Amino acid sequence: QQQVKQSPQSLIVQKGGISIINCAYENTAFDYFPWYQQFPGKGPALLIAIRPDVSEKKEGRFTISFNKSAKQFSLHIMDSQPGDSATYFCAAGGSQGNLIFGKGTKLSVKP
Amino acid sequence: NAGVMQNPRHLVRRRGQEARLRCSPMKGHSHVYWYRQLPEEGLKFMVYLQKENIIDESGMPKERFSAEFPKEGPSILRIQQVVRGDSAAYFCASSPSISGAGANVLTFGAGSRLTVL
Fold it and tell me: Chains A and B: how many Cβ contacts under 8 Å?
């Protein structure tokens, strides 16, 4: 019930393309869904987050789509750039403050 | 605002020694979380603390691992009698509150990388 499943494990996209990463959760008590970006040797950094009262949130080239009935959410990176190459983690959290993370997606954007 | 500060950034220990990892939360944050990241894997929750209180330690191994967040000073994750399987990156995160808009908004430090020889 506490799991967050993330796919794909790795993703290669051409510069200018769209990167799409998907996550699914089980616990309906989760009410906060962030995405974190991590570069090698660094800590995860909050990229964008959504709460279940909206179905989509956009910040620049990054969009979260949220499907409450399916218990799924996804990250779309438009116009992907080589500088976006990193590992992306989805997460889910509830009232306790703790976050449960997916296993990560390693994104490579080819020039 | 210096962010979440972790030290040491790298720590090498021999099997059987003790490892102490320190974390100072962001200014104004009173909640600290510890996560462990194994190579090529996600972040696994270990423990959640407030000042002088352990709120949730459901992710902590039953033996050898302990955490504290004293009234004064940083939070400390302590691993006694380290084994090779403890080699990992340990990340600390902090948040400003447990409820309202700030709940769940975790800011991570750069991590402490433990290598056990």
Answer: 63
Residue B88 CB contacts under 8 Å (≥ 6 apart), including other chains: B36, B37, B38, B39, B113, B114
Q: Are the C-beta atoms of B87 and B115 separated by less than 8 Å?
A: yes
CA-closest candidate to residue B9, choices B108, B91, B87, B117: B91
Q: How do residues B76-89 score in pLDDT, each as one tens digit?
A: 999 999 999 999 99
The pLDDT assigned to A82 comes to 96
Structure tokens at B85: 């399987």
Residues B9, B110: contact at Cβ < 8 Å? yes
**Which tokens sit at A97?**
């403050």
Residues of chain A with Cβ-Cβ distance to B98 below 8 Å are 95-97
Beta carbons of B31 and A101 less than 8 Å apart:
no
Segments in chain B below pLDDT 70:
1, 97-104
CA distance A39 to A72: 25
Please, which pLDDT band fits residue A71 given cuts at 50, 70 and 90?
very high
For residue B4, which residues of chain A lie inside 8 Å, CB to CB? 43
Residue A96 in contact with partner chain B when CB distance is under 8 A? yes
What distance in Å separates the CA atoms of residue B67 and residue B76, rounded to the nearest whole number? 6
* Closest chain B residue to the Cα of A10, Cα to Cα: B40
